[in-house]
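[job 4471] stage=fold_predict status=RUNNING
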Amino acid sequence: MSSVYQINKGVSKPIVFKGLKAQYIAYLAVGLVVLLIGFAVLYIIGLTLWAILPLIIGLGSGLFFGVSRLSHRFGEHGLSKHFAKKQLPEYLKCNSRQVLINLKSNL
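[job 4471] inference complete, writing structure tokens
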């Protein structure tokens, strides 16, 4: 008897939803939840819908375009690499060669 096995292709591929890759889906979801909470708070405070809706729609569209721009610009891991590269020092200052000499003698 022969067994039939399914092959899962693309297991290691990143999750993509409407052009957004990997962590950018979570960024958009968190932003939309914050907008929803902001809408509820503004409505409870007593602002009219005519004042709240343009604000929320504008912020939501800005959020969507901003996150999609980051997704297309940096890709799956590019944003974390960008922030890591910013934390590197521009140069190292060394007043003595003794550190380098000790490195060579220890090898």
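[job 4471] summary: The radius of gyration is 25 Å.
[job 4471] exit 0
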